Amino acid sequence: MARAGPGADSQLSTIQGHLTPDSQLITLNSTARERSRGKEVPWDSCQIALFVLAAAGTAGPADQVRDAEAAFAKAFADRDQAAFFAFVAEDATFLSPTKTLGGKAQVTESWSRYFRDPKAPFAWRPERVVVNGAGDIGLSTGPVFDATGKQTGNFSSVWRKQGDGTWKVLFDGPGAPACPPAPR
Questions:
Q1: Which of 12, 37, 81, 145 falls 20 to 30 Å from 128 in CA-CA distance?
Q2: What pTM did the predictor assign?
Q3: How far apart are CA 35 and CA 2, in angstroms?
């Protein structure tokens, strides 16, 4: 069995001091100890790294929608039209207070004007995200800010999970004005 380098025992005791006895499954001396069976199973650093990466890659559907919305907003802020419109579903409907855009072609034609200037005219960020029980439809809502950073409204976007596991905007808007601050 491989042994960790010098100082590993002191590192281990420091880390173990922060864990409960039942949670100590992987130790720095490259050994995983099954406490219930008392047998040792060797783990190398690659196995531990793969385990950590696999655990990190298991974001739930709401986190996936939040990440998609954030990437959608970032593409807009970065002025990356191709990335922005890649998030729009072919059958998307975007609603403004006065107009309904049906299909990706209409959305692309109308929203391309927002990419004319080097600085984005507005920005947004997801704050509340929910997903249906089937995990294939999500709702993202949050504040919209003008170019100076002042909140001017709120957005809502409905996302649909695609066959390849990505998320695309199905419905966007019409949004709502920003609520006045609550009285004190």
A1: 81
A2: 0.67
A3: 20
Q: Report the C-alpha gap between 111 and 124 in whole angstroms.
A: 15
Q: Which range has the top average pLDDT, 6-10, 50-54, 150-154?
A: 150-154
Tokens of 134: 């089937």
H/E element holding 109? helix 104-111
Per-residue pLDDT tens over the stretch 25-68: 333 333 444 444 555 545 555 455 444 444 445 689 999 999 99
Q: How far is CA 151 from CA 85, 114, 122, 145, 180, in A?
A: 24, 18, 9, 4, 10
Strands 100-102 and 88-95: antiparallel
- Report which residue type is found at 83: A
